[in-house]
From TrEMBL:
Organism (species): Paenirhodobacter ferrireducens
Family: Belongs to the MoxR family.
Protein's name according to its UniProt entry: MoxR family ATPase
InterPro entries: AAA+_ATPase, ATPase_AAA-3, CbbQ/NirQ/NorQ/GpvN, ChlI/MoxR_AAA_lid, P-loop_NTPase
Top-level taxon: Bacteria
Length: 335
């Protein structure tokens, strides 16, 4: 690693520390959630925030837009939402001379940080309108390809599927999310801090730390970070061990999983371990980063079989057992 690259990483690490502090002043007591979402953005990807209403997911996205200096957009997903409400549509306009022509009106997807609120309340047809935007950073309307431009990130919130009025996200769309972030209830001490910080005469305000151009430069720097051979092997071992049809699959995987993660999961781990190392002030990722990101990266890219569901097993348990056997490192209960 060159001295120039080391100094660039150190400068970016300091800037990211300021960004995390600014976000944490408003989104109190959820440091791991903030770390995962920032890691997804540094990796150039999208994040799916899963949790019950009222846990601050919307405020987190709004705060990130300010701190990262991005132009935000928001879509409130409802059962009657149509694809045109996301992408935009063409309207017929009449000019003063009487001539008529179609003009494209951009939808809310034309932004830099899109908040897809309660994404699983819309029908699969409407959810699929985001697929091309998330993967290719462009949309096609009336046969015309319209680029979204960098940076473009989707931070979607999702209510637990057990709630009434929700639809399961298609597997292809889930795979487009770099990480799935579970937002849990705060601890008692954290909730006390939230009460005191948010019910007074003033509230903490987010401070802009990055610009869009600086975020793009940071994403390029993340891809230049070196990754040791042991980390690469740990990623491959973990992902391939979670595929029931692979020779490397562990017995627990063959017994519990209907299908496992594809190559995009390995790519996601390769990027996010670098981003996590950077966020924690390190020059290169470690195997511990791979283990820490196993659940957020893999859990939405695999499915339990019927027998495993009947036995009451969970994907988190399966991933923890595989990670421990492959790397020798236990995943903490709160990870």
């Amino acid at each position: 690693m060159t001295e120039d690259l080391v100094s660039e990483i150190e400068r970016l690490g300091a800037k990211l520390g300021a960004a995390r502090a600014s976000v944490n002043r408003r989104f109190i007591g959820q440091e791991r959630v903030v770390e995962l979402v920032l890691a997804a953005m540094l990796s150039g990807g999208h994040a799916l925030l899963v949790g019950l209403p009222g846990l601050g997911k919307t405020m987190l996205v709004d705060t990130l837009a300010t701190v990262m200096g991005l132009n935000p957009g928001r879509i409130q997903f409802t059962p009657d939402l149509m694809p045109a409400d996301i992408l935009g549509s063409e309207v017929l306009e009449t000019a003063p001379d009487g001539s008529r022509a179609f003009r494209f009106l951009e939808g809310p997807v034309f932004c830099q940080l899109l908040m897809a609120d309660e994404i699983n309340r819309a029908s699969p047809r409407t959810q699929s309108a985001l697929l091309q935007a998330m993967q290719e950073r462009e949309v096609t309307v009336a046969g015309v390809h319209r680029p979204l431009g960098p940076p473009f990130h989707v931070l979607a919130t999702q209510n637990p599927i057990e709630q009434e009025g929700t639809y399961p996200l298609p597997e292809a769309q889930l795979d487009r999310f770099l990480v799935q972030v579970d937002v849990e209830y705060p601890t008692r001490d954290t909730e006390r801090e939230i009460l005191l910080a948010t019910t007074g005469a003033t509230e903490a305000e987010a401070i802009r730390v990055f610009s869009a151009e600086e975020l793009i430069a940071a994403q390029a720097l993340v891809r230049r970070m070196p990754v040791g051979e042991s980390v690469v092997e740990a990623i491959l071992d973990l992902v391939r061990a979670c595929r029931p049809g692979e020779p490397e699959a562990l017995p627990v995987v063959r017994e519990a999983l209907a299908w496992g993660p594809g190559p995009r999961a390995a790519q996601a781990l390769m990027l996010t371990v670098r981003a996590r190392a950077l966020l924690n002030g390190r020059l290169a990722p470690s195997v511990e980063d791979v283990v820490a990101l196993a659940r957020p990266v893999l859990s939405h890219r695999m499915a339990l079989g019927f027998a495993a569901r009947a036995r009451g097993e969970t994907l988190s348990q399966v991933i923890a057992r595989v990670a421990a056997e492959v790397t020798g490192i236990e995943i903490e209960a709160a990870a």
